[in-house]
């Protein structure tokens, strides 16, 4: 029995043999698919097993408390059924605890597997974009009145862009220890020219121009689960990052993910662009749901958020690269640098298309 199988036995309420395989391509938690066939049955039972990354989530127990509060809130009001969404259920240990701590102090949790689902890394058609935007809007509608005091901030500084700016500036001191390259020099120059405008959303919060609500925190495309036909969204997953924040972070990050059809790890920087048709479909569907709680003042900060979120992620990739790749999982040493350049190219294209994006926002009101 390997280590993962041993951990899985704490959640599997069966004597049957467990089969475990690595699952998904997430860059934060270690994720496995566990399945078994109960004695006397021919139907396989599946669930997801995850080790929560303590480098990213220093207080995993609070991550699980947030997840429990969110799911109980949605369940108590029959909200998921009304929104036509399915959410994973927490599978408790034999001791009726929502997580297991192993001998190394690592936190493991199990959640139900959503059958008949699939995810995508890039959008294949306009309808998929519309469905994702609609799903995100429905999620925001589900949780817009969830009291903030019930949700822990498990990622202090998350999406507080000035914090990432400070970290980036500090990382520049290691440049003397890094071999310079044209790509690295370009990335640093591009970022430095745009650092002064990175506080726009934080200043809006400080000036009480926008409202803080419960948000998803990471609504990239592969966190939307589609059915096997790809014509319906079943769920929005990866709920570890739920936190108090601006819905602007969510919709902008969603657009960042969907509108760059070449993906975060594009092999050709020339393919990276911000697709206006995908933007219009996604934003229109989201705003169709979000107008139930958005204020007119909220809408003024959508474009600044759309521009800011890829810049923020680019800064995070570049900072991680300069800090020896300790945060994001990589397959080769230069990957985070290349990821940063992809995001910066996306920022540049967004800046060139500002008038068109602003027109789309106005048309969706």
From TrEMBL:
Pfam families: APH
Domain Aminoglycoside phosphotransferase: 19-264
Record InterPro entries: Aminoglycoside_PTrfase, Kinase-like_dom_sf, Pseudomonas-type_ThrB
Gene3D superfamilies: 3.90.1200.10
PANTHER family, A to Z: AMINOGLYCOSIDE PHOSPHOTRANSFERASE DOMAIN-CONTAINING PROTEIN-RELATED, SLR1880 PROTEIN
Name of this chain's protein: MdsC protein
Organism: hydrothermal vent metagenome
